[in-house]
Each structure stands twice: as C-alpha cells, then as structure tokens.
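Listing S7. Sequence submitted for prediction.
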Amino acid sequence: QVQLVESGGGLVQAGGSLRLSCAASGRTFSGAVMGWYRQAPGKEREFVASISWSGSSTSYANSVKGRFTISRDNAKNTVYLQMNSLKPEDTAIYYCWWRYGSEYWGQGTQVTVSS
C-alpha cells in the first residue's frame, strides 16, 4: 500500500502562484512514476503533469504547458507542482497520482483561482 498526502492548495487571484506538494509513504518503490490530475466541478478528471523516477522525463497537459512545473525529491518521496500564471479555469481539486504496476491516488487538494 502507498499513501499519498497532498498539501499547498488554496485560494489565489488570477495571475498568482501556488505550489502543491504530495508526500508518499508506505511501500514506495524505486521506479515509480508520479504526477497530478485535476477535476473541476461537473467535469471529468484530467491529466495535468507527470514525472519519471529520475526526473529526466516530464509530461504536461497542453493547457498548463509553460505555466506549471513538476518536480520530485526522491529522498523525501515527494512530488511538487509549481503553478504560475494561474487562471480561473485552473480551479479544481488536484489529485496526486503514483504508479508502479499498481496505481494510488491522494485525497485531493482544492485550488481556487478568482478572477
């Protein structure tokens, strides 16, 4: 089992920044891919960003490219999402995701961007 705990969400004005963190605990394995998804009210959960174990490979949704940056610290079993130039359409619950064979999800953290 892997437990994921997100933090860093909140309310911010458009154009502002937030940094999300996700700490993994439990049976965390070398090689796990981690990332973030989000779900806005009335919409399906969508991919935001992912990062390989080494950090050398990252992937982003087109809607966040150039504004969001994903990174990780394997010594702390933590993945981060730096979100800049936030827009009201970024408002959603952001979920941390971990995959190494099995998949695990965090409980989510709310991000609200006011116009």
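Caption to Listing S7: primary sequence and predicted structure tokens for the chain studied. The mean pLDDT is 95. The chain has no helices and eleven strands.
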